[in-house]
Specification:
The protein is of the alpha+beta class. Helix content is 16%, strand content 43%. InterPro entries: LolA/LolB/LppX, Sporulation_related.
Length: 328
């Protein structure tokens, strides 16, 4: 009899322990209620991306609003070293990438930004709580640890997200396979349900006013990528299209690809171009992919990577590696 009672007690204790382990924490419940009641948010902060000894710093502002069934997004990324901005918008008209320094707008159709996680979006951080993760209570908030799953940055394998007790994010740090911080997103201002002024999510209709850029001259081209997927540079040529030099780098190996680099000057009038391809995001870069070509404009240089062997994200890695090194 005593043995049977002991077994029953043991089973009950195990059931209670499993319940305590598997039930959502009070913070997770609070975060879920926050998202259910949310009609808008604005996150401001600084994102640092490290690649070896190279660092890129961006000022980030992420905004979201919901009206009925419609959702609006606006993400501003300012490269601090150049004081140049790129804006990604989603509104009723579609998805737009705005480059103020070139007075240029590209229009897309697609599911951005919910087609993949973004470290600067609240939805991405809250979704981590729905999957496997560890929660640690600290004096000033809650620390969440989980696997990192960013298709645009496969090198990120683990992440930590710190929230304050009001479910507002404080920072996100993503680590590479060597447990080194490769991306840090620190939030300096967070507001919930404060709304936005009329026209905040509108697409620009006229020339865009831009902050004064510290960019004083075009980069000496060509730049040479560090990420080449074991291919070798077999040709470097310069051609001219409408009097504009194009620098062409051809790489050959197990995976062949070609990189074309062209200087782009700002337009006097706002230009809006509708793009049939898919919007592709990297770490601080935005481009579009249409079949076998990825095109990105950064620092007044247009990069086009052509390949039947590389994926869009691998093409993005090629361009990203040009931002940190010039090899000749």
């Amino acid at each position: 009899m005593k043995k049977k009672v002991a077994v029953i007690v043991g089973v009950l204790l195990l059931a209670v322990a499993l319940f305590l382990v598997l039930k959502p924490s009070s913070f997770e419940k609070k975060a879920d209620k926050t998202m259910q009641k949310l009609t808008s948010y604005k996150l401001e902060g600084n994102m640092e991306i490290s690649s070896g000894e190279e660092f890129k710093n961006y000022a980030i502002t992420s905004s979201w609003m919901k009206e009925g069934e419609d959702e609006y997004f606006k993400v501003s990324m300012i490269d601090k070293s150049l004081n140049q901005e790129q804006i990604i918008l989603k509104n009723k008209e579609g998805v737009f990438v705005v480059t103020p320094s070139l007075n240029q707008v590209f229009k897309f159709q697609g599911e951005w930004p919910m087609n993949s996680p973004k470290p600067y979006l609240l939805q991405t951080m809250m979704d981590v709580l729905k999957n496997d993760h560890q929660t640690k209570k600290e004096k000033d908030g809650i620390l969440i640890s989980a696997d990192a799953k960013y298709p645009s940055a496969a090198q990120l394998v683990r992440q930590e997200i710190k929230f304050n007790k009001d479910t507002k994010p404080l920072y996100l740090i993503a680590y590479d396979a060597n447990n080194a911080p490769a991306l840090t997103m620190e939030f300096t201002a967070v507001s919930y349900n404060e709304g936005f002024e009329a026209g905040y999510f509108d697409t620009p209709k006229s020339s865009i006013e831009t902050p004064t850029s510290s960019y004083t001259g075009l980069i000496e081209l060509p730049l040479y990528p560090m990420t080449v997927f074991d291919s070798k540079l077999v040709a470097s040529t310069v051609s001219s299209v409408n009097g504009q030099p194009q620098h062409i780098l051809e790489f050959s190996g197990e995976r062949d690809f070609t990189v074309v680099q062209t200087e782009r000057a700002p337009s006097q009038e706002l230009t809006v171009t509708e793009v049939s391809g898919d919007l592709v995001e990297g770490l601080g870069l935005v481009g579009y992919y249409d079949g076998n070509r990825l095109t990105i404009t950064n620092s007044q240089v247009e990069y086009s990577v052509y390949s039947n062997d590389l994926t869009p994200q691998e093409m993005m890695q090629v361009v990203e590696s040009m931002q940190v090194s010039v090899m000749k």
